[in-house]
Amino acid sequence: MNEFKFINSIKQSYYRNNTTIKGIGDDAAVFRLPYHDIVTSVDTLVDGIHFSKETMKPFHVGYRSLAANLSDMAAMGANPISYLVSIVVPKNYSNYDLQEIYHGLETLAKKHQVDLIGGDTVTGEQLVLSVTVNGAVLAGKARYRDLMRPGDIIFVTGTLGDAAAGLNILLDKQSVDFGADYLINRHRMPTPRVEFASQLANIERLALNDISDGIASEANELAQASRLTIYLDEGKLPLSKELKQFPRAQQLDYSLSGGEDFELIGAVSPEYWRLVRDAAEQTNTPIAKIGEVKDELKNNGTVWIKRNETYIKLQSSGYVHKN
Ligand SMILES: Nc1ncnc2c1ncn2[C@@H]1O[C@H](COP(=O)(O)OP(=O)(O)OP(=O)(O)O)[C@@H](O)[C@H]1O
Ligand SMILES: Cc1ncc(C[n+]2csc(CCOP(=O)(O)O)c2C)c(N)n1
Ligand SMILES: [Mg+2]
Ligand SMILES: [Mg+2]
Ligand SMILES: [Mg+2]
To answer: Is 234 annotated as a binding residue?
Structure first.
């Protein structure tokens, strides 16, 4: 790999987004947008933590990395515009491997009309891919975690637990009778719910969070940020037929704390539930009502889940990076 040749090889020949004023080729990129709040976030994938030779090809590393970032845009109700990639390239990575990472990034970027506007390339010991994404939301319309209100419906998109099941199949810790390809694909190439979230623009108030660490963790984040109590119904968690072939305890472990589903969990007033369902239908997004929000002084900041007709406390049991 030669740094400068490489940068030239990944540079887009034109920019899709008309907000992009300067992309790759100067000291920094520039984009311009009136009437919007700029939304930005960064997420990093590390070899051995988020993927391994067993679980992902370079193409998937690129795809999955942008997917996680676009998912954060969706969770803010923002439309993604552009992204930057910081990459640490190990010596044993071939030019082909590198191009495949960018092929994965570009495949999803094209789908969402976002531009690669910059980044940084260095060599190092292990592959690290850090993607920064920029997006925009109409001024004042970002979907913060503290925007839940008592009486809100809690909903979730897609199905939960598939990515964790797929990962365990890839790591040879699990075998299945059917649907291995589906589950593996859900792990390698998650679907960020960008169009769905964008279709909710007409709803005055909405709280959203995306599910990277598991719904047990993300629901607790919503409850804590909004200082309210969430009640979930375990029987209403949306599970794929592929996940349902596992023993019930495993279904629950994967769906509650497996993580990496990149689905959205949200809270909305019941009067707007119809609009949420319409948006789901228009964007081909499965959606399920899974609970409600209450204001209970002694329980605020916590999440409860109905299991066998009684509510038990749902601890924030998702994935935590630790040393
Ligand atoms: N090293 C850091 N320096 C500064 N801010 C950070 C750092 N790490 C996380 N944050 C900030 O902490 C908040 C929570 O980040 P977190 O990564 O948990 O959210 P997320 O990206 O939605 O979840 P995930 O990374 O699990 O997908 C965000 O505002 C994020 O920008
Ligand atoms: C090889 C391999 N081993 C384990 C895992 C599981 N894993 C890693 S990070 C994470 C949470 C999300 O991370 P973040 O919070 O950084 O977004 C999970 C569930 C994996 N993906 N690959
Ligand atoms: Mg993060
Ligand atoms: Mg997030
Ligand atoms: Mg995390």
So the answer is: no
